[in-house]
Write a structure and sequence with these properties.
This protein has 227 residues and is an alpha/beta fold. The strands form 3 sheets. An 8-stranded mixed beta sheet has the order 5-2-1-6-7-11-10-12, with helices on both faces. A two-stranded antiparallel sheet has the order 3-4. Strand 10 and strand 11 form a beta hairpin. Helix 1 runs parallel beside helix 6 and helix 6 packs antiparallel against helix 7. The longest helix has 17 residues.
């Protein structure tokens, strides 16, 4: 399984690093059955996160023809002007006000058509952590699908025509999404279990001294009665 984790300007570092480390360790534990790289819509470049001065390097362009798994992170930080300086209202911005703007800026890049290609390509699983689900939803790619995101973005997700599910991880077949920030660990461990096997996922779980949280929601079984 070759995984490509997408970087875009303003990405949330933990949404990227947590899945990257899990998948990288999964590759080690499976003797190379999993490979992972950081990519961007523009190709190899330094990509600034939304947190301080932290940048990560995308080593290649997002290429759905090479990927078995494409993972989209969320965003963090404040909105800046095109010259990189804080916007006039940045000092008064709350996180929940700034993040939809940062996520919305991805729609003005070459990312949406590449994500559309990934979602249409047989055999490719598209995944998202936190606000990454909103990137996909605002690009018009998740209408009618089951997905989750950070709890502060659930109403926006629902407003785009997505069936928003308040779960930590939601498996909708070739679309697997995780909720807020640290759920990237749970999401990546689940993907390892699903795509490579529970023994490898368990070995990585032990290595990281971390136990997956919550039940993975799937659209299966009877509808629960009201409590």
């Amino acid at each position: 399984m070759h995984a490509q984790i997408v970087l875009f300007d303003g990405f949330d570092p933990l949404d990227v690093i947590a899945p990257y480390e899990v998948l990288y360790a999964g590759g080690t534990a499976s003797a190379g059955a999993v490979t992972v790289e950081l990519v961007s819509a523009e190709g190899a470049r330094e990509v600034a996160s939304g947190t301080g001065d932290l940048t990560l390097r995308a080593t290649a362009r997002l290429d759905p023809e090479r990927a078995d798994l494409v993972l989209v992170p969320g965003a963090s930080g404040r909105v800046e002007e095109d010259d990189g300086k804080p916007g006039p209202d940045s000092g008064r911005q709350s996180e929940d006000e700034a993040i939809p703007v940062l996520l919305g800026r991805t729609l003005e890049t070459g990312l949406p058509p590449l994500l559309k290609s990934a979602m249409e390509r047989p055999g490719v699983t598209v995944s998202a952590v936190c606000g990454g689900s909103l990137v996909l939803a605002m690009a018009g790619l998740l209408e009618g699908r089951n997905a989750t995101t950070h709890h502060m973005g659930m109403d926006l997700l629902d407003a785009t025509g997505v069936r928003a599910v308040p779960a930590r991880v939601v498996d909708d077949g070739d679309l697997v999404t995780g909720a807020g920030v640290t759920s990237g660990l749970d999401l990546a461990l689940y993907l390892l279990e699903r795509e490579v096997g529970p023994k490898v996922a368990h070995a990585v779980e032990e290595l990281f001294s971390y136990e997956r949280r919550g039940i993975v929601w799937r659209d299966q079984g009877p509808t629960p009665a009201a409590f």
